Amino acid sequence: MKKILTYLVIAVLTMSLLAGCGKKEVKEPANRLEKILADGVIVMATSPDFAPSEFIDDSKEGQDMYVGVDIDFAKYIAENLGVELKIEAMDFSALQTAVSLGQVDMVLAGLAWKEERAEAMELSDFYNVTSEDNGQGILVKTDEVANYQKAEDFSGKTIAVQASSLQLSLLENQLPDAKVELVTNINDGVMMLIAGKVDGVGVAGTNGKTISGNYPEVEMSGFLYEYESEGTVVGMPKGETELCAKINEIIAKAAAEDLFTKWTEEATILANEIGWKN
Asked: What is the pTM for the complete model shown?
């Protein structure tokens, strides 16, 4: 009996030792880039109401419904990292919070560089830098365009803009006598303009041209803000410099292949074909 117990103890000890030798130490990712590569997925946040940058194609379903320049670029980023892309759509005002809290890996939403954004997020190099700059301006009713040709024409007028947007900053700094109406998305502002509830909607010029092409009731005013675009940026959680550096490499590669021009042309054509209305 003693011999049997002894053999059992030896067997148990031997199995424990073998199990210990076979166990590999799991190394935690040192940064977000390593985690993305380990998980095999990168999570992107966007606000799909800004054609041709990001918008919705109602003829498609699931992740495929999100289309536009930034969507194509996000897919290119995922492809170059060798991971899958997951898209999370949300209001524009929620994007910075989502990336600041680390709930997503990156934000692509036609982001302009702003100092407060640079303080809260890692911002990539500029991308989609084009020679054609349609500026930043204000949509008004088509039959009232002649009444809005200069800054003074907007004094006392109510302008709809998205919260936390570049358009809000421009409006507050350059048209201080105008009234601000915050909206969740640009489509809400356009509907309010058509209904006569606001006098204008702050938009990027390219976006405004796409909207007026599908809403004949509205058109870009003759006024443009004093603003020189350098392109747009990708937002990432603060401190994730490794991820930022990698995305900068991918931006340079896409620019060298002139992919942003291709994506912009394709997205603009698609938005017009489907009669995109946010």
From this structure: 0.76
